[in-house]
Design a protein that fits this description.
Radius of gyration: 21 Å
CATH superfamily of the largest domain: Response regulator
Largest sheet: 6 strands, parallel
Strand content: 5-15%
Strand order of the largest sheet: 2-1-3-4-5-6
Number of domains: 2
Number of helices: 12
CATH class of the largest domain: Alpha Beta
CATH architecture of the largest domain: 3-Layer(aba) Sandwich
Helix content: 40-55%
Length: 308
């Protein structure tokens, strides 16, 4: 799998890249290899792990985190490898394009460890980012962000807060505009906070502009996260729809799909119509005339559930 490297280089702000066992400065490339990273010293209080199947691309941020006082306990190529880390991380920086569990599924798995998860990607589409937030990520950063920004985000998450990058704020605002909840949606102050984050303001600047304490700002962002998760649940595929999405990439006819799912052939078009309606609700820029089967195939690929 290929995807853009993290843009920060080795030794951000003068820090050297982490060393690896066996010398040579490079990570082990064996399947499933977890790459341990030395701790920064006795003053370290918060353990951080980075999940990326291209570990060398994350060395710069690992070095910057160590320089900032974090214990970088490992670089691992998949979320399943987090179980091998000791001590368990308090914060996990998780790429959204991974082998095995990926995207929202990877975030959900990482979050079950009790750590705060920061999602990262250079190629994820807005809906993938929003799905990751709904799955438990407490922030998102593009891989083009400077290493120091990852350190700042890890600090916010370690303190129980959120990290709202300009990109994430933009996605959250678009989501709220395109899919309003009506009752229980985010209020004007939360919208004002997201607009400030969208401009690139820091959490401290947003709190000052809104004349609220950091704790109140965290509470507002909690409301944003809750509303976003409810938006995703409202338009999520049902178990039966998910069963069909797994099969649509195999070129099966409606009759074949019905036989595989033990359905009446007349039921398949109805399920595809429901899938198309949900797909369009989550993708307001999509062609409104897209055929149901095409919508199903695109959504299955995006969700990572299509079976070959």
């Amino acid at each position: 799998m290929t995807h853009p490297e993290w843009s920060f280089g080795r030794g951000a702000r003068g820090a050297s890249a982490p060393s690896f066992p066996g010398g040579g400065g490079g990570p082990s490339t064996g399947p499933g290899a977890a790459v341990p990273v030395p701790e920064a010293g006795p003053a370290v209080r918060t353990a951080v792990a980075i999940v990326d199947d291209h570990a060398i691309a994350a060395e710069g941020v690992a070095a910057r985190l160590a320089e900032a006082g974090f214990a970088v306990v490992g670089l691992v190529p998949a979320v399943e490898a987090l179980d091998d880390l000791e001590p368990a991380p308090d914060v996990i920086i998780c790429d959204l394009r991974l082998p095995g569990r990926s995207g929202a599924d990877a975030v959900a798995h990482a979050a079950t460890r009790g750590a705060a998860v920061l999602a990262a990607s250079g190629v994820a589409r807005p809906q993938e980012v929003l799905d990751a937030i709904a799955a438990g990520a407490r922030g998102f950063l593009p891989k083009t962000a400077p290493a120091r920004t990852f350190a700042a985000a890890a600090t916010e998450l370690a303190a129980g807060g959120y990290h709202v990058s300009a990109e994430l704020a933009h996605h959250l605002l678009d989501d709220a505009r395109a899919r309003p909840l009506g009752r229980g949606d985010i209020g004007p102050k939360a919208v004002a906070a997201l607009r400030a984050f969208e401009r690139g303001d820091t959490a401290a600047e947003v709190a000052a502009a809104l004349r609220v304490s950091p704790e109140v700002l965290t509470g507002l962002l909690g409301q944003v996260w809750d509303a976003g998760a409810r938006r995703r649940r409202r338009h999520a595929p049902s178990p039966r729809e998910l069963d069909l999405l797994r099969l649509v990439g195999q070129g099966l006819t409606h009759k074949d799909l019905a036989a595989r799912l033990a359905l009446s052939p007349a039921t398949v078009p109805t399920i595809l119509d429901r899938i198309r309606a949900k797909y369009l609700a989550l993708h307001p820029d999509a062609d409104p005339t897209i055929p149901p089967m095409s919508a199903a195939r695109r959504w299955a690929e995006e969700l990572g559930v299509a079976e070959g």
